From TrEMBL:
Quaternary data: Part of the cohesin complex which is composed of a heterodimer between a SMC1 protein (SMC1A or SMC1B) and SMC3, which are attached via their hinge domain, and RAD21 which link them at their heads, and one STAG protein.
Function of the molecule: Component of cohesin complex, a complex required for the cohesion of sister chromatids after DNA replication. The cohesin complex apparently forms a large proteinaceous ring within which sister chromatids can be trapped. At anaphase, the complex is cleaved and dissociates from chromatin, allowing sister chromatids to segregate.
Gene Ontology biological process terms in this record: cell division; chromosome segregation; sister chromatid cohesion
Residue ranges, annotated region (Disordered): 989-1026
UniProt name for this protein: Cohesin subunit SA
Positions of the SCD domain: 229-314
């Protein structure tokens, strides 16, 4: 309903009210009750005398009728006696106000708008007739006190909205009364000749009339407040409490003369301790409105002093939105009331700039910026006074102001102790102190500033310079990437068009500036490798798009020169090499304007290292020994540089694999090549193999290249296997093979000697190594059979690695169901390492694996293969060894039965036939106790009609049977039983999912009348086993079998 349509409806209702106000009031009452979801019946009160009305009221209340399951509520809204009926379980249903989705929001807005339009239309006449408001307030007061949630919620919302609208009426009356008093004062100050007595009398009468109307309105407001608010602000429903707090704060804001005092503020203070975050949030948002108005601060002094500690503690609220808005409230208070918060309070609030929730950190950053960073230089004077001092050189005012703000920021950050969290500090200050953080020319000028007599006091210590460089790098990252750092939530995911344009402009500015200034910074901090490492991150955030100019190319060449110098330094700092490799990778991208200069500089570096490596290896391989320690250091430094660049760049054209392979020969390893050197060589060869595989789609254009690649991979595996016997553990960790997993991953933690932190780090390392091995399985680098050793530990290490192994199982099953099923076979785990090959553990492992087959139809082939392989595993050795009385692994069939529950009916019949062919020669021995696992397994396959049942419950189910004691094998009843099942189960239309030799005869129709003797023997065996089952379980066979002669 639109606003105009709503006004039309209310206008029609007012016309009806003027004609028959009783019926119109009943229509309005029915409307409010229908908005609660139910209907009302009414009867006219026949008496209006006070005593009789009191007798009627004493008989009213809520009554429950348990027989009909209904509740009744009677109440008086004079002149109507209303009866509302609703089910006793009404709270289990939804009513319009709480319905989810757009309808619930639409109803809430339309309902509140209806109340406001109704009161605004009635404010000039009907509100003051003493009839409408009396009946409406009585209705809302009674229903808001109901035990039914729908009535209580809807009518509480309507009542507080009526009070808000009445405040507007009271404010309009106060404004009219103020104007009338002004006119009265003007008229009374006139001389006696000019005064008009009738006009004064009229104004006096109007003022009295307006005062009376305002008193009536305030009386109604007081009735609603005491009858509804005081009962409902502590309601059990948080929605009702939120409504009360939201409206109370709006009343204090709108009508401060009546509501803004400690008698009403205490309710807000109390509800800030509410258990529900939504209620606390409404209180904080309401207080933001009150503290934001400077005219209301005088009335908030007592409240502030009493609840200041609670406001400070709300910044630690577990709900992020409540904590953020509490910080915003304290920010508003600090700007208006400077003496409320102490310095200790501010120090506590400043630290929230490192919070993981971005809105909270942003408000804390704004507070930090307003208190610490908006400081003028202590010696700053007006420009006129500066110009008079010609002897003193002019100091850049902007530089001085920036230096003061920067020192304040450095002092806070270094004293707070969060030196490694610069990224969060920059992100928290980005919205409020962006002018400082994005002032890259001034910040770099300060870093490059040399101590001179004119720059006394502007220099930074080495520790401060390191922090400034970190801030500089993080501000560059923030400007280039935009989103918040990792670990910080609550950031805006989609930027507006204006924000995106600002980010692109900043990105272009930083690229242009640092392309020129970064060589100077690298030159100044060339001996401090931590600072150089940080500075080498900046080229990774350069804007790729752009039009190259002559100055740009010159600056790029100079930058590449200094980056090459840092990478080729004899010290070979590892972090510098890693960042230099990443920086060259970004600059060598095809989209950049300086890719030519970057690739030339990179190739020059690699050529230099290649030549150096060649000369060093010639000496080592020729002399078969390192002459001096300096030779070791030089070779190790060269290997480390090549490995760092090989990680990010394809260096296959320099053929480093063949050059480095001799260092891992058996002869070199026996001579005692240093461990660190072996590690670097292994990593270089590893990267060479990976790059070769990565580019194989382009390079494998002939058979010779494919054979060369395979030979390279085989050579690397051979060299890796040599390193398995290396005494150093770090060398062993360079390969991800099954033996390593069994020795290093699937082991218990060393609880005795390691601390909690060391155990956690060890656990994380083992998870990383297992994940690396599983990735090789998933991506097809290793054969699927190599997963057996991992899956065998699924149960024992479920708490440590269960998620990784389970995900690997699903991924491999998607790749190849048959190969994955071979790896899932429980007897594969039975052949695993000691400690895993116990019957209980393998049975539990089989149960866990069976649960992973969620859809038996899709996994039918895999499940059938698991059963068939398990049967062959049990009977293969038994068939080849005549002297054995029973298969040695017969108990494995009990484990295999865990998968039977997932089989579909045709596969069960097929597997039963396959099992009978394996056991046809041993029917006579089935009565022995050692054959019970076979009986158990066959029962799981025979449970065709009991899908989903447990095998034991199926075996022990009640079945009537013929007496079997003393019956010889092959008797008439025995054949009858066989033939009945043969005619029901072995139909010619059933096709086997696993083709077997000689199975074609089973599907021919001619054999339904006279089955072959071989199948008769199989059915005889089935009958024998079934009889034995009944003997074991204490049950009898079914006597309802149909006898059919052969």
């Amino acid at each position: 309903m639109g606003h105009s349509a709503m006004q039309t409806v209310i206008g029609d209702w007012m016309e009806a009210y003027e004609m028959d106000r009783d019926s119109a009031l009943l229509d309005l009452i029915s409307f409010f009750i229908q908005c609660s979801g139910w209907v009302v019946t009414a009867e006219m009160c026949q008496s209006n005398r006070g005593q009789e009305c009191s007798d009627i009221l004493s008989k009213m209340g809520e009554v429950q009728d348990e027989g009909s399951g209904l509740q009744y509520k009677k109440f008086l809204a004079f002149p109507w006696i209303l009866t509302v009926t609703w089910p006793m379980d009404l709270d289990c249903t939804e009513y319009p106000l709480i319905q989810s989705g757009p309808y619930g929001r639409w109803f809430h807005s339309e309902f509140t708008e209806f109340v406001s339009v109704l009161v605004s239309h009635c404010q000039h006449s009907v509100v003051f007739d003493g009839y409408l408001m009396s009946g409406l307030v009585s209705l809302l007061t009674e229903l808001s006190d109901s035990c039914v949630r729908a009535f209580r919620h809807t009518c509480t919302l309507a009542a507080v909205k009526v009070l808000s609208c009445l405040i507007d009426v009271a404010l309009s009356l106060s404004a009219a009364m103020e104007n009338a008093q002004k006119l009265h004062g003007v008229e009374s100050r006139k001389s006696s000749e000019m005064q008009s007595s009738p006009r004064l009398d009229k104004l006096t009468k109007k003022i009295a009339e307006l005062q009376e109307k305002r008193s009536d309105i305030e009386s109604i407001m007081d009735t609603i407040f005491k009858g509804v608010f005081l009962k409902r602000y502590r309601d059990v429903l948080p929605e009702i409490r939120s409504i009360c707090m939201e409206e109370l704060c709006s009343w204090m804001k709108m009508y401060s003369a009546a509501f803004l005092n400690d008698s009403y503020l205490k309710y807000v203070g109390w509800m800030m301790y509410d258990k529900i975050p939504e209620v606390r949030l409404k209180c904080v948002l309401g207080l933001q409105l009150l503290y934001g108005d400077p005219l209301l601060l005088a009335d908030l002094d007592l409240f502030t002093s009493r609840f200041k500690s609670r406001l400070l503690s709300l910044t630690l609220d577990r709900d992020n939105e409540v904590a953020s808005q509490a910080m915003k409230l304290l920010l508003v208070i600090s700007k208006i009331c400077e003496d409320v918060l102490r310095e200790q309070d501010f120090e506590q609030l400043y630290r929230f700039v490192y919070s993981s929730h971005r809105p909270l950190a942003t408000f804390a950053g704004e507070l930090l910026c307003s208190r610490l960073l908006n400081i003028s230089p202590p010696d700053y004077k007006e420009e006129e006074e500066k110009e008079e001092k010609e002897a003193v050189p002019e100091v850049d005012v902007h530089l001085e102001r920036t230096m003061v703000r920067l020192r304040a920021l450095l002092s806070f950050h270094m004293k707070s102790g969060f030196h490694k969290h610069v990224v969060y500090l920059v992100d928290g200050l980005w919205d409020s102190a962006g002018d400082l953080l994005k002032d890259w020319p001034t910040l770099t000028h300060i870093l490059l500033l040399e101590p001179t007599p004119q720059s006394v006091g502007l220099g930074l210590t080495e520790a401060e310079q390191a922090v400034v460089i970190d801030i500089l790098v993080e501000s560059v990252r923030q400007a280039a990437e935009g989103p918040s750092p990792v670990g910080r939530t609550g950031a805006k995911k989609i930027l507006s068009a204006k924000e995106r344009k600002t980010q692109l402009d900043d990105w272009a500015k930083l690229t242009e500036h640092f392309l020129t200034i970064l060589p100077l910074l690298l030159s100044k901090f060339s001996g401090r490798w931590d600072e150089v490492t940080s500075l080498m991150k900046i080229p990774q955030y350069f804007q790729a798009e752009g039009h190259p100019s002559e100055n740009t190319q010159v600056s790029a060449v100079e930058l590449m020169t200094w980056m090459g110098w840092a990478a080729d330094h004899p010290s070979g700092h590892p972090s510098v090499l890693e960042e230099a490799s990443r920086a060259f990778l970004c600059l060598c991208d095809e989209d950049t304007a300086w890719q030519g200069a970057a690739r030339s500089a990179r190739d020059l570096l690699v050529y230099r290292w290649k030549d150096r490596l060649t000369s060093q290896l010639e000496d080592v391989l020729k002399d078969e020994i390192f002459r001096t320690d300096s030779d070791k250091r030089e070779l190790f430094s060269t290997l480390r540089k090549l490995r760092a660049f090989y990680n990010a760049h394809d260096l296959s054209q320099w053929d480093l694999f063949d050059q480095l392979s001799p260092l891992l020969s058996m002869k070199c390893l026996q001579r005692g090549v240093p461990t660190e050197m072996v590690l670097e060589v292994l990593r270089c060869l590893y990267h060479a193999v990976l790059w070769n595989l990565h580019t194989s789609a382009k390079t494998l254009n002939s058979r010779e290249s494919a054979l060369a690649q395979r030979q390279q991979l085989s050579s690397f595996c051979e060299m890796s296997n040599r390193c398995l016997s290396h005494p150093n553990v770090k060398v062993k960790e360079q390969r991800a093979l099954l033996t390593f997993l069994l020795e290093q991953v699937f082991v218990g933690p060393d609880v005795g000697s390691a601390s909690e932190v060391e155990r956690l780090e060890d656990h994380h390392q083992r998870r990383t190594q297992l994940a690396a091995y599983c990735k090789l399985l998933v991506h097809g680098v290793l054969e699927m059979g190599m997963a057996t050793g991992v899956l065998a530990h699924y149960t024992k290490y479920y708490n440590d690695f269960g998620d990784i192994i389970k995900e690997t199982l699903y991924r491999t099953r998607e790749m190849d169901k048959i190969a994955s099923a071979h790896a899932d076979q429980p007897h594969s785990g039975a052949m695993g390492p000691p400690g895993v090959q116990t019957f209980t553990s393998i049975k539990e492992l089989a149960r866990r694996f069976a649960l992973t087959f969620s859809n038996p139809m899709k996994c039918s082939e895999s499940l059938t293969m698991i059963h068939r392989s398990g049967i062959e595993f049990v009977f293969h050795l038994f068939a080849q060894t005549p002297g054995l009385t029973s298969p040695p692994f017969l108990t494995f069939l009990t484990i295999l039965s865990e998968f039977s529950i997932k089989l579909i009916k045709p596969d069960k019949r097929t597997l039963l036939c396959f099992l009978q062919r394996q056991t046809v020669d041993h029917v006579v021995h089935l009565r022995d106790d050692c054959w019970q696992p076979l009986i158990y397994y066959r029962a799981s396959l025979l449970a065709v009609s009991a899908d989903g049942e447990d095998v034991v419950s199926y075996i022990s189910s009640d079945r009537k049977a013929l007496p079997t004691k003393g019956r010889p094998l092959g008797s008439k009843s025995q054949f009858s039983s066989i033939d009945s099942r043969y005619s029901l189960s072995h139909k010619p239309s059933v096709a086997s999912s696993i083709p077997e030799e000689g199975h074609e005869a089973e599907s021919s129709p001619m054999y339904t009348e006279a089955p072959p003797l071989e199948e008769v023997a199989e059915e005889m065996e089935e009958a024998e086993v079934t009889e034995e089952l009944c003997h074991i379980t204490g049950e009898e066979m079914d006597d309802e079998m149909v006898d059919v002669d052969l």
